[in-house]
Automatic annotation (TrEMBL):
Pfam families: adh_short. Belongs to the short-chain dehydrogenases/reductases (SDR) family. NCBIfam families: PRK06179.1. InterPro entries: NAD(P)-bd_dom_sf, SDR_fam, SDR_oxidoreductase. The keyword Oxidoreductase applies. One of its GO terms (molecular function) is oxidoreductase activity. This is Short-chain dehydrogenase.
């Protein structure tokens, strides 16, 4: 591939937010880019949008087949699509917990399972999974969302060892809090309990404040391009100052100190 034609890329959840900015950055970097959305959407400049329901294996396989039909190959996959869930862990039914895992974890697995045979045939490929700082640290009132990101971390690191011999690399990009549409992909608990109402409401207000002050999505997009084009990629890339700080916090600070810092940051009293 030349610098002007780096290959064919797929970005899931590319209709808005981090996904859209990332898809646009990859176009600028020289990729032919396909994006997915749950509903039909207009094609942003240089991006071919496809409808795909990541919770349906048939939909995912059909989307991958359509890309290969149009472009002949797939060189890069960016698994970005996901949903949030705010509330106390006890306030979600098992069905609701399963639904967020179905998108954030098994949606990623469906895409990867569909694309791996193609990449093995090419003897090359790179898959970037968008994780989060919440894949490194706990997050009160985001227990299930944080759990999905912790799952993606373990899955990705394990899978990278399994497929590296085929010329395929798995990479994690870890954004911090990013300025995106807060309500767009946020789910509220389906069995709220009065005992958690005050803290849940505070947590939602705190999240809004953090997002307003968060990183520009372009920071994540630039990190994805860096990870996609690195000759020898690292397993993990921190996207932004906050992400780097959290990673250092978790890695080097004593557990009790990390616990104290997290409780203070979340306004929780002992």
């Amino acid at each position: 591939m030349t610098n002007r034609n780096k290959g064919v890329a797929l970005v899931t959840g590319a209709s808005s937010g981090i996904g859209l900015v990332t898809a646009q950055a990859l176009v600028k970097a020289g990729y032919q880019v396909f994006g997915t959305s749950r509903k039909p959407s207009a094609n942003p400049h240089g991006i071919t949008m496809l409808v795909c329901d990541l919770t349906e294996e048939v939909s995912v396989k059909g989307m991958i087949e359509e890309i290969v039909k149009q472009a002949g190959r797939i060189d890069l996959v960016v698994n970005n699509a996901g949903i949030g869930l705010l509330g106390g862990a006890e306030e979600s039914s098992i069905a609701q917990a399963q639904s967020i895992f179905d998108v954030n974890v098994f949606g990623v697995v469906r895409v990867i399972n569909a694309v791996l045979p193609i990449m093995r045939g090419q003897k090359s490929g790179r898959i970037i999974n968008i994780s989060s700082v919440l894949g490194l640290i706990p997050s009160p009132y985001n227990a299930f969302y944080s759990s999905t990101k912790h799952a993606i971390e373990g899955y990705s690191e394990s899978l990278d060892h399994e497929v590296r011999g085929f010329g395929i690399r798995i990479v994690l990009v870890q954004p911090g809090v990013t300025r995106t549409a807060f309500e767009e992909n946020l789910t509220h608990v389906d069995q709220p309990l009065p005992v958690y109402t005050a803290e849940r409401t505070h947590s939602e207000s705190l999240m809004r404040t953090w997002i307003e002050k968060g990183d520009d999505p372009q920071i994540v997009a630039d990190t994805v391009v860096k990870a996609a084009t690195a000759k020898t990629p690292k397993l993990r890339y921190s996207a932004g100052k906050q992400s780097s700080q959290v990673r250092m916090l978790r890695r080097f600070m004593p557990e009790k100190l990390v616990d104290r810092i997290l409780r203070k940051a979340n306004g929780l009293l002992d």
